[in-house]
Amino acid sequence: MSNQIIDILALAIPILIAITFHEVSHGYVAWKHGDPTAKMMGRLTLNPLVHLDPIGTLMLFLVRFGWAKPVPVDPRYFKNPKKDMLWVALAGPACNMVLAFFFGLIIRGVGLQYSASFTGTFLKMVLLYGLYINLALAIFNLLPIPPLDGGRILRGLLPWRYEYIVDRLERYGPFVLMGLIFFGMFTGIDIFGAFITPFVRFFGRLFAGINL
C-alpha cells in the first residue's frame, strides 16, 4: 500500500469523527433547548455519511479545514431564540475542542516514538491528524463569517439593531469563504492558515505537548 493511500486513510478517520460529533452536538443542543427538527430528520446519529457535505469534506482533505452539512435548526421552538441559537452555534466548535483535548491526552500517554510496526505508525498518524483536524475545524468555524458557526455566534452577541450586519454577510459569506480558499490554493497565500495556524500550534502544545 502506497504512503499516499495510508495518509488518506489516516486522515479520513479523524475527519469523519470530527464532522460527525460537530454536527450531532449542534443538533443535540438544539433538541435540549426545545427544537426537535434535527432529531426528526435523523441528524442525531453518529453515522458520518448523514453529515457529509461534498465540498466541505473535500476542503478538509485539500486544505485541512472545511465544513459538514449543517444541521437544520428552527429557532421558533426556542424560548429565547437569540440566546439559544448562540449556545447551539457554540456546541460544534466546543465539541471539537473537547475531542482535540482527548486526542492530545492519548498522544501524551502513548508518545510519538518511532514504531517499526505498520499498525503502530498508522495509529500515531490518526492521533496526530485527530488533534490537528479537530483544532482546525473548531477555530475555522469560529470565524465570524456566515454560514460558519462564528456567524451565528456573532448574531447572538450583537444587539438586535445591529443584526442587519449579519444579514448582509449571509448573502456573500459562502462566496467569500470559497474565494479566499481558492485564492490561497492558486497563489500560495494562505489567509485562513495565517489566522488558524497560531491557534492550532498553541493548543497543540497545550493539549499534547507537541508542535503541530
What can be said about this structure in brief?
This protein is mainly alpha-helical and 212 residues long.
Topology:
Elements: H1 3-32, H2 37-40, H3 54-63, H4 81-110, H5 118-141, H6 149-157, H7 164-187, H8 191-208
Helix pairs in contact: 1-4, 1-5, 4-5, 4-6, 4-8, 5-8
Keywords:
globular, 212 residues, mainly alpha, single chain
Number of DSSP strand runs? 0
Terminal CA distance reads 26 Å
The SSE string, one letter per element, is HHHHHHHH
Q: Total number of helical segments? A: 8
Fraction in helix: over 70%
Q: In terms of structural class, how would the helical and strand content be classed?
A: mainly alpha
Give the overall silhouette. Answer: globular
Q: Tell me, rounded to a whole number, the average pLDDT.
A: 88
Output the radius of gyration.
Answer: 18 Å
Question: Uncertain runs with pLDDT below 50, 5 residues or more?
Answer: none
Provide an overview of this structure.
The chain has one domain. The protein is globular and about 60 Å long. The protein is mainly α and 212 residues long. The two termini are 26 Å apart. Helix 1 crosses helix 5, helix 4 crosses helix 6 and helix 5 crosses helix 8.
